[in-house]
Amino acid sequence: MFREMLAKDDGFSLTEILVVIVIIGILVLLALPKFTAVIDRTKETEARLQLKHLHTLQQTYRYGNDRFGKTLAEIGFEQQALITSGGNARYKIGILDANLQGYTARAVSVVDNDGDGVFSTFEVSETGKIIQVSLD
């Protein structure tokens, strides 16, 4: 009787395992488009945070110098190493224009997520409002 119990295998067949794997794969493919939008929004958060920090530095610089800074170094903003150079940052930050009354700064993605040649771009001005200029 003990030998009969050992000889009887109550496992899954290869076919059953493959069917389960195929079903899981189909479910993942159905859910993937919903997650890519969330991932893209998460990546855009980096640009918004960097521009918000740049705006704070510009305001601080203006209080001390009665004008807005024309370069990142002048206001003390340090560009993080870009992902294209082995770093983690996905957005290149730059000041487009600065004078006594205002400034415009831009964050441009260095990664074309969908390969269409359009890169996500955000801008901030002296008002502190961050606008999305283009969407990848």
What topology emerges from the helices and strands here?
Layout: H1 2-7, H2 14-65, H3 72-75, E1 91-98, E2 103-109, E3 121-125, E4 130-134
Antiparallel strand pairs: 1-2, 2-3, 3-4
Protein architecture, described:
It is a single chain. With 136 residues, the chain is α+β, with helices and mostly antiparallel strands. The protein has one domain. The chain has helices at residues 2-7, 14-65, 72-75; strands at residues 91-98, 103-109, 121-125, 130-134. Strands 1-2-3-4 form a four-stranded antiparallel β-sheet, with helices on one face. Strand 1 (91-98) and strand 2 form a beta hairpin. The longest helix is centred in the N-terminal third of the chain and has 52 residues, at 14-65. The radius of gyration is 26 Å and the shape is elongated. The mean pLDDT is 88.
Described by its quaternary structure, the protein is single chain
> Any idea how many domains?
1
Q: Sketch the topology as an H/E string, one letter per element.
A: HHHEEEE
> How many angstroms does the end-to-end distance come to?
68 Å
Q: Which sheet architecture does the biggest sheet show? A: 4 strands, antiparallel
